[in-house]
Amino acid sequence: MAFQINPYNEYPIPPTSATPPPPRRWWSRPIVTMPPTNGRKATCMETTVCVTPFCAAIFTIIAVCVYLFHFVDNAHCDAKFVIQSIAVSPSSATWHVDFLVKNPSPRFAIYYKGDETDVSLGLLSAAVLNTSHERKSPSHTAFSVDFLAEGNPNDAVSEQLDIKLRAKHKSYGDDYDNAGHIDLFANSVSVSNANANVSAADWTIGFVARSPVTGCEVSIHTLNSRLLRGSEVISKSSSPSAGYFVTGDKTEVVFEKVVMPKVIGDVIWDSRVEIMFAMNTNARYLNGFLMAACPAIPVKFTTDQAGKVMGSLLGNVKRCDYIFQKQLA
Predict the structure, then answer these.
(1) Separation CA 6–CA 12 (nearest Å)
(2) 183-192 and 318-325 strand pairing
(3) Residue 47 lies inside a defined structural domain of this protein
(4) 151 to each of 39, 83, 88, 268, how far by Cα in Å?
(5) Which ranges in 140-292 belong to alpha helices (H)?
(6) What is the C-alpha to C-alpha distance for residues 169 and 108, in angstroms, rounded to an integer?
(7) pLDDT at 120
(8) How many distinct structural domains can be found in the chain?
(9) What is the pTM (predicted TM-score) of this model?
(10) Average pLDDT, rounded, for the chain
(11) pLDDT in tens, 267-297
(12) Residues 86 and 96: beta-carbon distance below 8 Å
């Protein structure tokens, strides 16, 4: 009788007349068969072949998670605004609009403060007077805005209501990227040396630069500026701030002998300022120049009993758009 020798522990295996089982299909065959624990040690090649599928599975799971995280982190978010009601006061020309805002994601923050809100009625300018909001649910917020619009409030208005709010998509690692982000506003207007019999006056417009991140110090200096009404330049700055950089985030620009227009009602709606600032901050790589434009600055005029004309900014501060440059071209 012939005996077979077990190659692992070298003991004889008695012969058998049983029919061997059929070979397994290729998809169910193991990549490698490890020797029993009481036999010889597995070779390095056998161990590598056995561990490779597990490592590949782990790296595949990590790659899929990274891709999904990147997709969610950069997904485009659209907030939905639904108008609940509109009321217009004929006597004061004040509009009151109630919205219900649906926030698309907890990581998408919407800011409802008055200085973050800008409103227009088609081509008609508007000045935001007041805003309020109330959280109704984790994803819904009731938002109200009061604004004064250009034109006759007694006329029928068929214009598109455009409203802009500042929002931020919170992504990981954005603290460093936004550490030096600057918001620029026209925050005040003062008209002096004017009366009912004078056709020109001095305008002083104040600007403020704000950083959303605490601790970012901003210093700005006016290099040149001009005041426009429509597309016509009506004055250029004559007295920028003294000193190259002024410690602080506020500055004023004086426009002398501005020709006073024939005011429609008591508000001038189409004043615009184009201004260039030199800016210095304590944030890395954010020292340079701002080319700013502040459109549709509403100026309200009043006249006292002595006939003195006074002008001031109507409504909340007006946000300015700007382009940042490291160097002048």
Answers:
(1) 6
(2) antiparallel
(3) yes
(4) 95, 22, 13, 11
(5) 174-177
(6) 5
(7) 84
(8) 3
(9) 0.67
(10) 77
(11) 888 889 999 888 887 776 678 888 999 988 8
(12) yes
Phi, psi of 237 (to 5 degrees): -65, 140
Q: What secondary structure does DSSP assign to 262-289, as a single string?
A: --STTEEEEEEEEEEEEEEESSTT--EE
pLDDT of residue 243: 46
Residue predicted with more confidence, 200 or 95: 95
Which residues in 162-193 are b (16+ Cβ under 10 Å) and which e?
Answer: ebebbeeeeeeeeeeeebbebbbbbbebbbee
Cα distance from N-terminal residue to C-terminal residue, the chain: 99
For residue 30, tell me if it sits in a domain: no
Residue 150's nearest CA partner among 113, 180, 184, 121 is: 121
3-state SS string over 1-37?
A: CCCEECCCCCCEECCCCCCCCCCCCHHHCCCCCCCCC
- Same domain, residue pair 144 and 220: no
Q: Is the same domain home to 186 and 301?
A: yes
Of residues 251 and 159, more confidently modeled: 251
Pair 236, 227: CB distance under 8 Å: yes
Per-residue burial over 296-313, b if 16 or more Cβ lie within 10 Å, else e, is bbbbbbeeeeeeebebeb
Cβ atoms of residues 324 and 209 within 8 Å: no
Q: Look at residue 67 and give its three-state secondary structure.
A: helix
Q: What is the span of the domain harbouring residue 272? A: 180-325
What's the rounded Cα separation, in Å, for the pair 300 and 247? 31
Q: How does DSSP classify residue 40?
A: P
Question: In the prediction, which pLDDT does 242 show?
Answer: 47
Domain stops at, among 170, 203, 219: 170
- Token pair listed for 11: 């003991």
Considering the domain architecture, whether residues 64 and 195 belong to the same structural domain is answered as no
Burial of 270 (0-12, 13-18, 19+ CB in 10 A): middle
Whose tokens are 């926030």? That residue is 103
Q: How many residues does the chain have?
A: 329
Domain containing residue 133: CATH number: 2.60.40
